[in-house]
Amino acid sequence: MLDFFTIFSKGGLVLWCFQGVRGPASAATAPVNALIRSVLLQERGGNNSFTHEALTLKYKLDNQFELVFVVGFQKILTLTYVDKLIDDVHKEFRDKYRNEFQQKGALGILNGTFDFKDDFLRLLREAEESSKVRAPTVMKTFEQSVKSQKTVKCMIETRGEKPKEKVKNKKNKGSKKEGNEAVTASNKTAPGEKQSSAAGDKEELTKDEILQKNREEFFKRHMKAGEKSSKSPKPDAQKEKGKKPRVWDLGNSNAKVLDYSNSTTNGNSEASPMEDFDPDMALRDRNREPGRLYDLEYESDEEAEEEKIIQNTSKPSTKKGGLGGMFGMLKGLVGSKSLTRQNMDPVLEKMKDHLIAKNVAAEIAVQLCESVAKKLEGKVMGTFTTVTSTVKQALQEALVQILQPQRRVDVLRDVMDAQRHRRPYVVTFCGVNGVGKSTNLAKISFWLIENGFSVLIAACDTFRAGAVEQLRTHTRRLNALHPPESHGGRTMVQLYEKGYGKDAAGIAMEAISYARNQGFDVVLVDTAGRMQDNAPLMTALAKLIAVNAPDLVLFVGEALVGNEAVDQLVKFNKALADHSMAQTPRLIDGIVLTKFDTIDDKVGAAISMTYITSKPIVFVGTGQTYCDLRSLNAKAVVAALMKA
């Protein structure tokens, strides 16, 4: 039984609605609004089905008249006639009110009266009956079976005798082998026949002579191969002996400075000595504006690309004159025809291959192209536009829409809001091993300090050797770049750590309490890297997030891994939901995309990660210095993605 069936325009005007279940008229409002927000506005129309709470919604788009047909029914029901019903309703409604849409346009939609209840009930009854009318399955009689045609004698098997079918199969296999041998023999003897016909009648060679000749040819081939392999390669250039130690830009030649065994940093900034180094060398950007988070830039070459016009599969007849050919060419250019799936398929196939080559996950590339096809099918092309340009423009708009976040994460505004409530703003970083959690945490710390906020870093990676020392080094560097003297004697960044082997959730709780007592603005919680399939570690991460309730949970992922990033993000979200004891589990709120400077124009990971989870990319890491932090520019990413 259907819950509702509604027809509305893409402008949001409901033309007609049917409600099959008793209840308030607004019962269909929430599911349809969720469909519009999550699917239609986010360009995720690759699948014509959408689930909202206990309902399943199926929809169909009419791009020519800008209409949407939506049917809703209970998720536990299996209604086989829904697809047929929505197609029939679409065709009937379109044919019935075609004149109003074509002649009056938008006014016809606004002022029209759509009395479609009787037609809909008729179509619903026909669809239900068509699903019930099925030929009953009747069991075959013995006379109709294959076994009845066999005699009793042929079914008796004696010992030592094989069934006739197997013998026949073996005979067939043997005949095939004999046939193959005959073909190869004829191929081998073919050159001999040509030689005998050219030289005249000669005596045929005996078997021993043929065998001797083949042996001589075999030895000749092996002798040639041995001569080739015996040639010694050219001697390589002599390499310098020994290894030279790598010298880092901010490194120190004295090894004693690497000894951190006696340093403690919990609330004591004097225990970690300041280091003197050149800030310009550390930041490598003298002209930048402090505290500003620049947009991601991409320099695209503006080259005029010649687009090939996809001609119709039916070739024009040669009887037409030159004038008819000219008008036919103009008719192909000018938007006089609506787009069909056959016209778009070649272009979409190329677009799909292009997206996959740019590191977009294959499944997501297919869904994107399917969504674009459903959005354009039946739509009339613009004047002097080609199928290629129309599809490409629609795909670009879809990609930009996907990268635009549904929920904008404004960290600075949220930190100021937490300041008014006199509590620290807590951010938790999670991700797999080696993606750059600690490095990008330090970059975000530097950005927050330049905006005037004090930061407490909680070292909750109590597993990886050197994790605490790495954060300690970042703390010293950041304090050297922003000494307390520049901020009225206030230490802008401190490290809270309890060593290794301790409970990460407990350390995070103590760090948040310490930050509240000491008046820190932001707490950045660094966690240990863990694989998405490691259940014990994912349980510990879910515990840390559930106990401490951070304001923002950021997933740190690499831009260069492609499909693996999607798998990591999906499984992290699923693990946080499965291992959390809360009724409404806390999931990932945003993404930090690292190592973006290593991928050139293969930026497909950004599309894949935002498409699969609808989570915004909050920060983008583009280099090795503290100021190499960017905000995502959707148009720049799409320009890099669409570059040939």
TrEMBL record:
SUPFAM superfamilies xrefs: Domain of the SRP/SRP receptor G-proteins, P-loop containing nucleoside triphosphate hydrolases, SNARE-like
Gene Ontology terms, MF aspect: GTP binding; GTPase activity; signal recognition particle binding
Residue ranges, compositional bias (Basic and acidic residues): 156-166, 222-240, 281-290
Family annotation (Gene3D superfamilies): 3.30.450.60, P-loop containing nucleotide triphosphate hydrolases, Signal recognition particle SRP54, nucleotide-binding domain
Region of interest (Disordered), ranges: 156-207, 222-290, 303-322
Protein family membership: Belongs to the GTP-binding SRP family.
The keyword Nucleotide-binding is annotated on this UniProt entry: yes
Annotated keywords: Endoplasmic reticulum, GTP-binding, Membrane, Nucleotide-binding, Receptor
InterPro entries per UniProt: AAA+_ATPase, Longin-like_dom_sf, P-loop_NTPase, Sig_recog_particle_rcpt_asu_N, Signal_recog_particl_SRP54_hlx, SRP/SRP_N, SRP54_GTPase_dom, SRP54_N_sf
CDD domains: SR_alpha_SRX (cd14826), SRalpha_C (cd17876)
Organism per entry: Gallus gallus (Chicken)
Gene Ontology CC entries for this record: signal recognition particle receptor complex
Compositionally skewed regions (Polar residues) per UniProt: 183-198, 251-271
Keyword presence, Magnesium: no
GO BP term (any one): intracellular protein transport
Domain SRP54-type proteins GTP-binding: 616-629
Listed name of the protein: SRP54-type proteins GTP-binding domain-containing protein
